[in-house]
Specification:
heterodimer; A: mainly alpha; Sodium/glucose cotransporter; B: mainly alpha
Chain lengths: 492, 54
């Protein structure tokens, strides 16, 4: 029985939703150009960037899979967060890739590729980015709806209606205000989300206790619950795959990179990275603690993804429940709005580039950007409703993300630092890194080949994608004759 | 038991303390960032309008 009180908790949630919608709609008057819509006129400063990046990269889906990791793997489940924080810190500190990218003045990564590899690679990279990104985002709605239904105790039949209402609300202010609405609502959402996360975590630590959680992890997973190298479901291949995945995400994930590209200068972008880096440890460890608390309290359950929300529904008192749901709505809305905008920006800026040979008016550009976001919303609604998720959520996100992370990170590093890189290498790298994860997803779904997919596992296929993609770039580039002719322009 | 898992205990405490502090700090400084961002956008728009008239 959930402790959600419709009067008290419902009011907290209602006030939050109202404040967000008002803030999101108020800034729409500042959107006069495509540049305002896509990168907020490049006026974002450090602290707004930190709030926006943190809010975007923590959705309900994040909370669900990181809690699932905590429930299934113990404290060791927070390892991807530590790896991502390290990658973020190093990239921000050194400016590796993000400095030349921001200095180039582009609005999306494929736009930079055109300068080095030509318009076809720009287009192909755009398609791969959108394909990987939308498949990845496709599970957000259902997972978010699952959490909200379980925690608030709503009838499960309302899940689809809730998903639709949430998406329509988010799409409304994103379509009107673009990146400006995203930044302002992200700020509000960061504050609400963080308050909820901190209060609930302190409550859990006080109620369940550190000793009980450590004891539950020891009982169920032994030493492997604390050490990822000896955890039977993790091991070196899990760590290597996550190190590659998280480094590639830090360098190329469109929603993260959008903050660098919206920053008012390169130094601001780098500061956003270094100062947000530790948040990525919290992003895995805090919900991981919630998952471990569910393990300590509920014991083994059939659906590990639902363990944490089921536990919270009975342990968080009325009043705090409203804050928790507002926090999770905030987390989800900030993620959805930013994801719709950034994938939309690639569709407009890169995939539609061949159709914009003559310069479009700002009005026409804004119209198309808004239409694309609306279409993405419709796609998400249908894909989110029918895709049956198999395996754990983090692995699905990792595999679909790898479709573009592997090739785009290889292309971006080569574009910035390897003079011999050319369009042949880029095309081969894109092809290899799309084929391996898509093949893996297909054979995982087919009953006749599911056992084969299981024996290979997502980590080996993921690692192979990154290394083969890099190899493809090198071999393809070296095979192309007269590489000097290909060097159209140098990246700053 | 706590002594055996000091790494995770330290990291958990660090997360709660750091996250609480950064939330308050970013809430204050981020609000100022929004104010300045909107002011700059407004000023740029006014300047562009003025140039168009000229």
């Amino acid at each position: 029985m959930t402790r959600f009180n419709w009067l008290l908790d419902g009011s907290i949630v209602g006030i939050y939703l109202l404040a967000t919608m008002v803030a999101g709609l108020m800034v729409r008057k500042y959107v006069g150009k495509v540049e305002h819509f896509l990168v907020a006129g490049r006026e974002m400063d450090v602290y707004l960037g930190i709030a926006s990046l943190a809010a975007t990269e923590f959705g309900i889906v994040t909370c669900m899979y990181t809690a699932q990791n905590g429930y299934e793997k113990g404290f060791a489940g927070a390892t991807p967060g530590i790896l991502m924080a390290l990658a973020m810190l190093i990239v921000g500190w050194t400016g590796f890739v993000i400095k030349p990218l921001r200095d180039s003045g582009v609005m999306t990564i494929p736009e930079l590729f055109e300068k080095r590899f030509g318009p076809r690679i720009r287009w192909a990279a755009g398609v791969v980015i959108v394909l990987g990104g939308l498949l990845n985002m496709g599970v957000f709605l259902r997972t978010g709806g699952q959490f909200l239904v379980l925690v608030s105790g709503l009838d499960v039949n309302y899940l689809e209606i809730m998903m639709t209402a949430l998406l329509v609300g988010v799409a409304f202010y994103t379509i009107l205000g673009g990146m400006l609405s995203v930044l302002v609502t992200d700020f509000l959402q960061f504050v609400v989300m963080s308050a909820g996360l901190i209060v609930v975590t302190v409550l859990i630590l006080m109620n369940v206790g550190w000793t009980s959680m450590v004891s539950a992890v020891e009982t169920h997973y032994g030493v492997g619950g604390f050490n990822p190298f000896i955890n039977p479901t993790m091991g070196w291949q899990y760590i290597l795959f996550n190190a590659l995945l998280n480094t590639a995400a830090v360098l190329t994930w469109q929603t993260i990179i959008a903050r660098v590209l919206s920053a008012k200068n390169t130094d601001t972008g780098r500061k956003v990275y270094t100062r947000t880096s530790f948040f990525f440890v919290c992003r895995f460890l805090i919900p991981g603690i919630w998952g471990i608390a569910a393990l300590a309290t509920l014991g083994p359950v059939a659906n590990t993804l639902e363990a944490m929300p089921r536990y919270l529904s009975t342990s968080v008192p009325a009043g705090l429940m409203g804050l928790l749901i507002a926090a999770m709505l905030a987390a989800d809305m900030s993620t959805d709005s930013s994801y719709m905008l950034t994938w939309g920006s690639v569709i407009y800026n890169d995939i539609m580039a061949p159709f914009r040979k003559t310069r479009w008016s700002e009005k026409k550009g804004l119209f198309w950007n808004r239409t694309i976001i609306a279409l993405i919303g419709i796609f998400l609604l249908f894909y989110g409703l029918w895709y049956p998720l198999k395996g754990d959520l983090w692995t699905y996100l990792g595999v679909t993300g790898t479709i573009y992370l592997a090739s785009i990170s290889v292309l971006l590093i080569s574009c910035c630092y390897w003079r011999r890189a050319n369009s042949w290498g880029a095309a081969t790298a894109i092809l290899i890194s799309a084929v391996i994860p898509i093949t893996y997803l297909v054979i995982e779904q087919l009953p006749s080949t599911a056992a084969l997919a299981k024996s290979i596992g997502p980590y080996y296929s993921g690692i192979a994608t990154y290394f083969l993609s890099a190899l493809a770039m090198v071999v393809g580039s070296l095979l192309k004759p007269s590489p000097r002719n290909e060097l159209r322009g140098e990246v700053a | 038991m706590m002594g055996n898992h000091w790494f995770w205990l330290t990291l958990t405490i660090a997360c709660v303390v750091w996250y609480s502090t950064i939330t308050i700090y970013v809430a204050i400084k981020g609000a100022a960032d929004i104010k300045h961002m909107l002011a700059r956008l407004e000023a740029t728009a006014a300047k562009e309008k003025g140039e168009q008239r000229d």
